[in-house]
Design brief:
The structure holds 3 protein chains of 3 kinds.
Chain A (H helix, E strand, L loop, with lengths): L1 H21 L5 E8 L3 H11 L8 E8 L1 H9 L6 E3 L3 H9 L15 E11 L20 E4 L5 H16 L4 H13 L1 E5 L2 H9 L5 E5 H9 L5 E3 L3 E11 L6 H11 L2 H9 L3 E2 L2 H6 L9 E3 L8 H10 L5 H9 L5
Parallel strand pairs in A: 1-2, 1-3, 5-6, 5-7, 9-11
Antiparallel strand pairs in A: 3-9, 4-7, 4-8, 4-9, 4-10
Chain B lengths: L3 H11 L6 H34 L3 H9 L1 H34 L5 H7 L2 H4 L2 H12 L13 H26 L2 H9 L4 H30 L4 H4 L10 H10 L3 H34 L1
Helix pairs in contact in B: 2-13, 3-13, 4-8, 4-10, 7-8, 8-10, 9-10, 10-13, 12-13
Chain C lengths: L1 H28 L4 H9 L1 H34 L5 H13 L2 H12 L6 H6 L8 H11 L2 H14 L2 H8 L4 H12 L1 H16 L3 H6 L3 E2 L5 H10 L3 H29 L3
Helix pairs in contact in C: 1-14, 2-14, 3-7, 3-8, 3-11, 3-13, 5-7, 8-11, 9-10, 11-14, 13-14
Classes of the chains: A alpha/beta, B mainly alpha, C mainly alpha.
């Protein structure tokens, strides 16, 4: 009996010690939930911010994953003060759930913190000579992209593909037919943009539809990746927003403002994201070439995220559902 | 507590142990603890699962389960699990045979290694298979993101099942029967077919069912190597994961309930086999 | 001749499926030198991931051990209705997909779940935090101790316990002095299996953890995270550590199994 009691005491003391070591002694804690790609950039920006008087004594918990998944996790209770996602659509989802203020896109730069472009990542030497959108639908070309029903990255890819055709002068019907032909060539639809990149880097496929910053990041990590920016491409605008349920809204907003400051925008640029700040953009214009035709989600051919998402990606019935069914692909 | 003498007398008189008052109380206590624990850990979650699957109505349940992608995933899952379980039944039996009847240097090491898939985290298993049979494979075999990869991963995680259920049966097998058969002129094949096989069959079936159950639910080893390509290499567990993350927990729950039913069915089969063989032994 | 053929088949099967892949991982980890592997292992988030795995295991194993022993005693020694159902529920975690386990917890404790509202109002984080991960791990590792102890208890019979009772020992004394020692090796073997299962858990925890770096990432989730971050060497390094732990568990199993008696 005595031995049992002693054992119980030891366990209790151990448990207390463990939980005590888990208690943080810093002033403020911010939860940052982000999409997969900006993980390293945000880690660097956080470290930089913690050197400033505003950011000292602020501790961060960070979670990264596919943008849509993360948005839904937050809606399901994943603790967060700030979200940095890959599409305004995912932030609007949180607005719908009452977790983000509907005026989030009235903050500086319309709530956007970085830009990027849709690009084609190809094999070293580009053996299949893939340069333009029409090269993607040639027979025998294997395309990799993320799954549009789980990944914001994929949605940008598909809309970019459609948009390019429209900007080339083709009709809505022709452009949709193009997207279907494109998906006939898709061999892997990964869960997130990062998973798609890993699939490509592990040797699958001839071309990867991805963000410019993802391609630059892989290169920075020592991967031998080559990419081309097509003449027509879509501007990927990644938003950042504070949660209404945050217990540290002021601190969270300070952090958000910092991510758009010169210091942070330079860090973004170093990690391959196009700055929203015009000043920093000019500094890095050698790294980020411009292209003749760049279109945004606000373009009339899309009509904004709400309209585009319903038309293209509604799992209950949309253009992508029809296309995926036609080729035997995912519908949800 | 109860007087020991009285108890002893009661035992002597009744010829069997009498359930004393104290024992009923302790049974109640045990059952109380068990029920509480099981409710919190197993039953409540399962109840929430079943409830959620029906929360949007019968039609929604049916739609979720019969959607083309869900059907494709279920077909692949059950099909792959079946193939793997059959391969296991054959190769596992051979391995068990070799381990019991054969002898060679290093046999005990090999015997211990068999349990490795039980001990190794499944995600590590997936990573190791990717290293050997993926694009940067040293032996030039690249099956990553294909159905073959799924089979390879499932073979890894289910490897021990049949071996471990057949081994003890083979070990305990009465050699006398075999010798009798041989002395009566039966060939090796006939001996195997008529004497050995019927005796190890319950073990093989048990292992088959367990391997099948494990394969149907497997996820860790598949997330990296299978590519999770819907309609082509997406198994039900990955599909369910996708549904959760797409904000469709009711749909996920519907397919999960289907897997649950399959699991229960397998449990019944294994239980029946176990019951049959235990009775068989006692007789 | 047939003997060699059978031996060849068995060994080739094991080599192709089991041995070769493991060997390659060991090779790949150190392909780029110890540096990359060490960096991944010594990163604070990785160390935390290992700590978290150990903490969850340290909580789940004792609970399931106590439960397993109580359960086994009830199944073998006591009479009550619904024994078959109890057996089925105990065995269920073995047949159930870990993702289904995670989903059921998600449905129970998520914001819109049965208990989600309650916990949110009281500011208690269950999902995407340690409690849900512990519940998930307990669920998937539930059966092992019970399943190992039941056959042993059946085999040894209860004559000694009956004798002890008639000699005046109370329930607790009988348990501690007679029953427990006789099932000792079965319990130990069950604990080893439970521990291995807890250390290697992925599917259920992946659904409920939220993958908060440095907080709710276990070692297995960390492997996937490193792979996702282009840090293949790091992923392999963590995998190796887990594999080495698994091999030690294997050795323990090999040592204990003969004494356990049942296989």
């Amino acid at each position: 009996m005595r031995r049992t009691l002693t054992a119980l005491m030891v366990v209790l003391i151990a448990a207390t010690a463990v939980s005590a070591s888990w208690a943080r002694s810093t002033d403020t804690k911010l939860g940052l939930v982000g999409y997969a790609v900006p993980r390293e950039a945000l880690e660097a920006i956080i470290k930089e911010w913690q050197k400033t008087p505003e950011g000292s004594n602020v501790d961060f918990s960070q979670s990264y994953g596919a943008s849509g998944d993360q948005a839904r996790a937050v809606a399901n209770g994943l603790p967060a003060d700030v979200v940095q996602l890959s599409t305004g659509l995912d932030v609007d989802y949180l607005v719908e759930k009452g977790l983000v203020d509907r005026n989030w896109d009235k903050q500086s730069y319309k709530g956007i913190v970085t830009n990027s472009l849709v690009v084609f990542a190809v094999r070293p030497g580009n053996p299949k000579k893939i340069k333009a959108w029409d090269d993607l639908v040639k027979p025998g070309v294997e395309v990799i992209t993320a799954n549009p029903f789980t990944s914001g990255a994929a949605k940008w890819n598909i809309l970019a593909a459609y948009g390019a055709q429209r900007k080339l002068g083709r009709t809505d019907k022709q452009a949709r037919a193009y997207v279907q032909r494109l998906f006939k060539n898709v061999v892997v639809q990964a869960k997130s943009g990062r998973d798609a990149t890993n699939a490509f880097l592990s040797g699958k496929g001839d071309v990867l539809l991805t963000y410019e910053n993802e391609a630059l990041l892989s290169r920075k990590n020592g991967q031998d990746i080559q990419f081309t920016i097509p003449k027509q491409s879509m501007l990927i605008e990644a938003p950042i927003a504070v949660l209404k349920t945050s217990k540290n809204r002021d601190k969270a907003n300070q952090f958000i403002r910092f991510t758009k400051s010169d210091t942070a925008q330079r860090i973004w640029a170093e990690w391959g994201f196009r700055p929203v700040s015009k000043k920093i953009s000019r500094e890095f214009r050698a790294k980020f070439p411009t292209r003749p035709t760049v279109y945004r989600i606000s373009d009339p051919i899309f009509g904004g995220w709400a309209a585009a998402d319903k038309k293209w990606f509604d799992p209950k019935g949309s253009i992508m559902v029809d296309i995926e069914k036609a080729i035997g692909g995912p519908t949800g | 507590m109860e007087a020991p003498l009285a108890s002893a007398v009661a035992v002597a008189a009744a010829g069997r142990p009498v359930r004393a008052h104290g024992e009923r109380a302790s049974t109640a206590l045990s059952l109380g603890v068990i029920t509480l624990y099981l409710s919190l850990i197993v039953m409540l979650p399962i109840a929430a699962l079943v409830w959620a699957s029906r929360s949007e109505g019968k039609q929604a349940f049916w739609d979720a389960v019969t959607s083309p992608q869900s059907v494709a995933a279920l077909k692949l899952t059950v099909g792959a699990a079946f193939v793997v379980a059959v391969l296991n039944a054959v190769l596992g039996t051979v391995t068990a045979w070799v381990l019991v009847r054969d002898d060679f240097r290093g046999k005990s090491v090999i015997n211990s290694i068999i349990d490795l898939p039980f001990a190794l985290p499944t995600i590590v298993a997936g990573l190791t298979l990717l290293a050997l049979y993926g694009p940067k494979s040293p032996i030039g075999i690249d099956i990553a993101f294909t159905r073959t990869a799924i089979l390879a991963a499932l073979m890894f995680v289910t490897l021990p099942f049949v071996v471990r259920t057949v081994q003890p049966v083979l070990t305990e097998l009465d050699h006398e029967m075999e010798e009798a058969a041989r002395s009566l002129g039966a060939s090796e094949l006939t001996t195997f077919r008529r004497v050995i096989f019927p005796n190890i069959l319950p073990g093989i079936l048990s292992g088959f069912a367990l391997a099948f159950a494990k394969a149907v639910g497997e996820i860790g080893s598949l997330v990296i190597i299978s590519g999770n390509l819907p309609y082509k290499t997406e198994v039900s567990s990955v599909f369910i994961l996708g549904q959760i993350e797409s904000g469709n927990p009711a749909g996920a729950a519907a397919v999960a309930v289907v897997l649950l039913v399959i699991s229960f069915a397998i449990l019944l089969v294994v239980g029946a086999i176990r019951h049959f063989t235990t009775r068989h032994d006692r007789a | 001749m047939r003997r060699y053929a059978l031996r060849f088949v068995a060994l080739f099967y094991l080599a192709a499926i089991l041995i070769a892949p493991l060997g390659i991982v060991f090779y790949r980890t150190f392909e780029d030198g110890f540096g990359a592997a060490w960096e991944a292992l010594s990163a604070p988030d990785t160390i935390h991931a290992f700590k978290l795995t150990l903490i969850i295991t340290a909580i789940a194993v004792p609970l399931n051990t106590v439960f397993g022993i109580i359960c086994a005693l009830a199944i073998v020694r006591k009479r009550f209705p619904g024994k078959g159902l109890l057996n089925a529920f105990i065995d269920l975690p073995l047949a159930l997909s870990p993702v289904v386990v995670g989903l059921s917890l998600f449905l129970l404790y998520g914001r819109t779940g049965w208990f989600g509202g309650f916990f949110e109002r009281h500011d208690i984080q269950v999902l995407f935090a340690l409690p849900a991960m512990i519940l998930a791990t307990i669920f998937v590792s539930l059966p092992f101790v019970a399943r190992e102890v039941v056959p042993t208890l059946r085999e040894i019979g209860d004559e000694q316990e009956q004798a002890a009772r008639t000699l005046g020992a109370n329930g607790w004394q009988t348990f501690r002095r007679i029953t427990l020692p006789s099932i000792r090796w079965a319990v130990i073997y069950g604990v080893i299996l439970t521990t291995a299962r807890c250390l290697g858990e992925y599917g259920a925890v992946a659904v409920v953890s939220g993958r908060i770096q440095g907080e709710t990432e276990t070692a297995t989730l960390r492997v996937e995270e490193r792979y996702d971050s282009f840090d293949l060497a790091g992923a392999y390094a963590i995998a190796i550590v887990l594999a080495l732990i698994a091999i030690s568990v294997l050795l323990l199993m090999t040592l204990v199994k003969p004494r356990e008696g049942t296989t």
